[in-house]
Amino acid sequence: xxxxxxSPQFLSIQEGENLTVYCxxxxxxxxxxxxxxxxxxxxxxxxxxxxxxxxxxxxRLTFQFGDARKDSSLHITAAQxxxxxxxxxxxxxxxxxxxxxxxxxxxxP
Amino acid sequence: xxxxxxxxxxxxxxRGQQVTLRCSxxxxxxxxxxxxxxxxxxxxxxxxxxxxxxxxxxxxxxxFSGLQFPNYSSELNVNALELDDSALYLCASGRQGxxxxxxxxxxxxxxxxx
Lengths: 109, 114
Prior knowledge:
The complex is a heterodimer. The relative contact order of chain A is 0.33. By secondary structure, chain A is mainly beta. Helices cover about 0% and strands about 55% of the residues of chain A. By secondary structure, chain B is mostly beta strands. Helix content of chain B is about 0%, strand content about 50%. At the A-B interface, strand 5, strand 9 and strand 10 of A face strand 4, strand 5 and strand 9 of B.
């Protein structure tokens, strides 16, 4: 069974701080996705990483896929209150996703 | 706006009852998956339908069943509801075989079993 562990589970920071969220597994994934979910809504895809060692940037968000394709990280620079939400990593087949345990981020003004 | 709509948004059921949740996907999305998300956890894969046939199932008992219709809508049925079935149920759809692998989630149906 493929499992994805995320850390930390909860993060409360001030606006302007930097943070990193980790997603780890003992299994190899052909790709990993990162989602953000806000209260009352479904997850929204942020990025898909496919190649080991790949780095993708989305404005202030930087995503990295581990060389062995077993782990990934999400780094947010200068966090803003609008970044508040539940961040989920996910891997697996098309739509048969295994989701991580989630990291709940709270950014205070 | 993902183009995936779910209904109802919230409902309360009694233990032992049956529930049907509905999902309407974007035109052309031939694949739909259902997920259960308990409070404070990540979504868990229930099952997937591709061209109206079940195409994979997670670790959920047979009392969780589904249907996919030709008009890009689908249903999740849960029989003999248990308290632990209380969760957010998410529908996700996409086009397998199309360009890219983006799937789109609906906003979910909150089910409370009392």
